[in-house]
Amino acid sequence: MRSLFRQVVCGSLMSLVIASQQCCSSTGARDTRAMIATDDDIPRVQYSVGTSSLPLIFDDAAYRSLAEKVAADRIALLATHRFTDDAQLAGWYRSIARLYAEIPDFALATKYRAEAAKLVAPGGVNLGRVVFEAEASLAQQGLQRGMPGYDDRFRRELRERLFAAPFSEIREECMTWRFAGDVATVDALKGVAQGATDPKLEANGGIASAAVVDEIVNWRQAYRSQYWLAVIGPICGEVLDANAARETRENRWAPRQVSLVATDPGVPVPIGIWDTGVDGDVLKDNMWSNANEAPNGLDDDSNGYIDDLHGIALTYSGKPRPGTLRDLGPLAPRYGELVDCYVAQADMLRGIDNDGVRRYKARLKTLDPAARFKFDEDVSTVGGFVHGTHVASIAVAGNPFARVVAVAYGAPDAAADDAPPSRESEIAEGETARRTIDYFRAAGVRVVNMSWQTSRAGLESEMERLGVGGSPAERATLAREWFMEYRSRLESAIRACPEILFVCGAGNSRDDVDFSGYLPAGLRLPNLVTVGAVDAIDRPTSFSSEGSGVSLYALGSDVPGLLPGGRTGRFSGTSASAPQVVSLVAKLLAIRPELRPEQVIDILSKTGEAMPDRPGAVVVNPRGAMEAIGWRDRSK
């Protein structure tokens, strides 16, 4: 889809809210507050902040004024509304705590973090919590940044806490943060704030929704983190190096993998890759071929698509485009340079320091804020371009019977891409989704991979960016109505193909797919499954979204795959875990083509490894699933 109360007043109001909640629960009195079951139920508010976010990010007094207003509003909401899920209420408390933490007011931030912890256990250690607790501990001792000796005390406090934490719980974040200070600079922050947030403020006359305020809080947090990023990076390196020699990570994922061979009694299985396109030259041995089409510039099979030899490319509005890859346009001549940067970026987030990473970091140092924002956008565009091929290569790995039917979704359309969202554009995109699924069905596709995500909130954000819809409340009403036009068409099209299994990624936002209303992950259909991400030892990743419908998990951390042109890259995300499940499903169907989607889901669920902290969810076990249908390994 086109992503002033003083502290004492806030504290008193919070006490009243908590007391009222306790009273209702202890006396059994009827709670008449409005219910919040999804993020769409949260009342919209607005704040007059001006057309530039920079003063709110860099000026302590300006940020404090805004943060206290927003915190007071969020506390007051709890007197009139109640969250139906404790985890979401805990998240609301944490959002209040974060507002105060960036003032910084560690006393109030600690208070609201404690309220959240009463509802939902904090879980494992994470580096953000370690940093907060280190700063809060020093604040309780009367120490603040800028005081003599504070830097040494903070470094020592942080180091002690990190080395005391279970290494398995902080390993992933230590790798990510090891070099974060090299790229998360003030110039980078200014660039993204001016390029991403300020256009929304300008389009709405300096009025910000709560979502834009949260963006500003993110940038404020990034600004204040400049201090400790320079400290925590080297300490993360120490922790990683200290544990490298004695670390024992039993790779539970690799032993479960299976590969089919040509001599297996299998049949071809068309698999749909609904993504940004697939480089058919890279995966030529696994591409589906349209037997009724020839490369002659004609629509030989009269299906509405010219030369759809291995699939199609569609704009969001449904216009066909040639080939099975998105067009990079003016970035095409720079593909080699930009894909190197994209791979280096991913390597850096894995804690790797190599020549590519060093060149990437050196390049960033030459860019001013505006140039940095544009460069990051270009790298991100190339990241989208390579996404589909990487996903497809995971889905076909170890399966000579897999045949990719590619749909490059969201191909560029100069006329429509710059048009503001509307009911008509949502209807058009819903019809494009329907046409996509019709194409898969006509090609005989058995399983479809959907490693993408959209939401009503994303539409609302795009409307705000372009100044569409009036006030936040008016905009929310329109977004809700318009988005339903898309959702209803997507859902009915999937439901109309009970013979196809649709597999989608949960998302990488660390939130609840149901509360956030993500599509397709939030759909509940008998022929759709949603997949979360684990690492190689079956630990849920720090980024994976979850929810009651996220029933399957698969490897989504540091997953290798092919990119357009043939080079390789290793990336993390539920975009990589979903095709792991598709890969297994295609293997099951190659050997047992008579299996129906509900039977496949049953096999995956019964043969998976149970997740103790997620009742009903399993990590898929490819070997166990294949053996359950009578397959024997002929690859050895």
What does this structure look like?
The chain is of the alpha/beta class and 636 residues long. The protein is 51% helix and 11% strand. It has helices at 7-27, 54-58, 60-80, 86-101, 106-119, 127-140, 150-164, 167-177, 180-183, 186-203, 210-244, 335-349, 355-364, 369-396, 414-417, 423-442, 456-465, 472-495, 513-516, 574-591, 597-607, 622-628, and strands at 34-36, 46-48, 81-83, 207-209, 269-275, 311-314, 320-321, 402-409, 447-450, 501-505, 528-534, 550-555, 559-562, 568-571, 609-610, 618-619. It has a ten-stranded mixed sheet, sandwiched between helices. It has a two-stranded parallel ribbon with strand order 1-3. Helix 6 packs across helix 7, helix 12 (335-349) crosses helix 13 and helix 14 packs parallel to helix 20 (574-591). The longest helix has 35 residues, at 210-244.
Concise summary:
With 636 residues, the chain is an alpha/beta fold.
Output the structural class.
alpha/beta
Instruction: Give the averaged pLDDT, no decimals.
Output: 91
Q: Helical percent range?
A: 40-55%
Number of DSSP strands? 16
DSSP strand content = 5-15%
Strand adjacency order, main sheet: 7-6-8-5-9-10-11-12-16-15
Number of helices: 22
Biggest sheet features: 10 strands, mixed
Give Rg in angstroms.
25 Å
